[in-house]
Structures are given as structure tokens and as C-alpha cells.
Amino acid sequence: MPKTLFVVGAGASAEFDLPVGDALKTRIRELLGYRFEHWERVAGDDCILNAIKLWSTRNRLTGPEADAYIAASRSIAESMPVAISIDNYLHSHNGDKAIELCGKLAIVRAILLAESSSKLRYDGSLAKKIDLGRVENTWLAALMRFIGENCSRETIKKRLTQLAFVVFNYDRCIEHFFFHAFRTYFRMRDDEAAELVKSLEIYHPYGTVGGLPLARHDDAESVIEFGRDPDETKLLALAKGIKTFTEGMDPASPTSIAMHKCVASASRTVFLGFAFHPLNMELMCGASRTGLLPSGQAYGTVYKTSHSDVKNIETYLRNTMGFDEVFLEHSTSVELFHEYSRTLRFD
Are residues 83 and 167 in the same domain? Predict the structure, then answer.
């Protein structure tokens, strides 16, 4: 059965008010920009600081060894204005355990804070629900309309086999949205909606800020509700789920091999808010290792990208990645769905 693959980058999460690019760097700079006066913290995040203290205690770090983590935090904060992204900065300091830990703590903290104030936040009622009206004009809502077209409770699971996701973001917007959308649209019980979300083919090459409590998990430490404020113990546990550019996915792992096969077998690939970084493309395809290359049609957003760069991206997708046809639009993710509303519908 023809499958549509959605490759999701940071720009796609911006539609839900998640910080991307400069906004994320600014937030991380605020979280890690520690200043102390008379031994009292006057700048920087308290939760991350407590997590660093807990890490130091667990590893019996004292004096200069413990202070190195505060110094690493400040170094990250001071460097953000000239960094492409926090991910690139961590890649530049591969092997520096203090930099890696503090950077991952900040990523988790920043995204969880953003989730709590995003369009996908809970609506404040006793029942944990989101206001779907807030996300009506987003790409996920547009995709849900395509999924729900001529589809019933009896046929939805089969319909979902026609799509897959490779998500380069650390957030859980897709899983969180679909749980609430399935539950509301198809009038499902929580366990039924959770099972549908679990059936979705979703790959996170760089991990996430934690699993959602949709069902039982083997590792409860790595689970946190959408937008929940963690304590220092939970924050340290969640930081383990973040991977840097250098770490990525093990190319020989079953999950990585499955992702490569999914990418190669998709009949059409839709890039949403994606920067087309060659390192990410290689990680997604595994082309240099397995020989599996994508084909078919490629659609993508190139919002605020120069014409010369767009031409370069198109050439790369055709000649290097192997796509037969390439359609790139200077649009947001939801606008791409509007532009190709007939093309992207399911059979």
C-alpha cells in the first residue's frame, strides 16, 4: 500500500508555539546564564541547578569538578548568540561530558516549559483535554482532516498504515495531538486512542524529552505528562533520552534499519519545517551504509529560504537523494497542506 512519509523539523512545531531557532537559543541562554550574588542565585534556572547538584552528589563530585558544570552552563549561554543551534554547539563539544549534560538538561527544561504554554496545553478543566480549536489552523489538524475523510472507527487503523513520521524534534506534539484528536473525533476511550497512537510508525532519531503516559512503560523514570514541570530527579532521567548529532541512532539497530526501509519505500515524502541538513538526511536514509535511497515525489516547505538555497536543496533532493520529482514551497507547514490538498489526501 502506498505510504506517505512526513519528515518533521523544528519549523513544524512553531505552529504550536514551540520555540525554534533563535527563540530556543534565547530560552537556553536564560536557563543556563547563571549569576550569583552573596551566594544566592539571581539568574539561571533553579530546576537545572538542582539537577546539577544532584548529579554531582551521585558522582561524588566536589570543588572544581562540581564547579565545572556551572562553568559549562555559562559557556553554553554565552555561546548561543553565535551558534547555529544548541544541537550544533553540542556537536562542536562532543566528548565534553559537562557541556553535554548541561545542554541536554536545558533542552528538556526549555521544551517542557514551552509545552505547558503551547497551543496543545491542557484546557484547564478537571478532565485532561486540549482545546482543538486552538490548533485548527495547524498542519496536524489539516492532516487529521485528511485521515478522518471517509474513515470510521473500524477503518482508522488501516488508514494509519498509510503514513509514517521521522521527527527531528525533541517534543511530543504529534503523539499528544493524535491521542486527543482520535479520542474526540472517533469518540474513543483513552485506552483505544492510546493504542492507535502506539500503532503509528514514528521515529525520533535524536530522542524526545520523555514518553507520554498513554500506556504502561518499562521505564517510568522516562515518562512525563505533556508540559509537566519536573523535579531535579525527573529532569536528570529525562536528559538521558536526548541524543546529540554525534550520538544519533545506531545505524545497526533494528529501529534504525526499520526507519531506513520506511524512508526508501515511501511513495511520497513531505518535508515540514525541515532545514535539509545533510547530516540529518544521511541519518534518516542511511544511504552511505545501506544503499537504501528514497524515491517518488518529494514535497517540502522552504519558508524564508533564499531562492539560491532553494535551488541548491532541489538539486540535492534530486541528484543526491534520488527523488524523481521535487516540489518546494515558500510556505508554512499548514499552507503546504492547503496548496496540495488533493495530492496529499489518502485513497
Answer: no
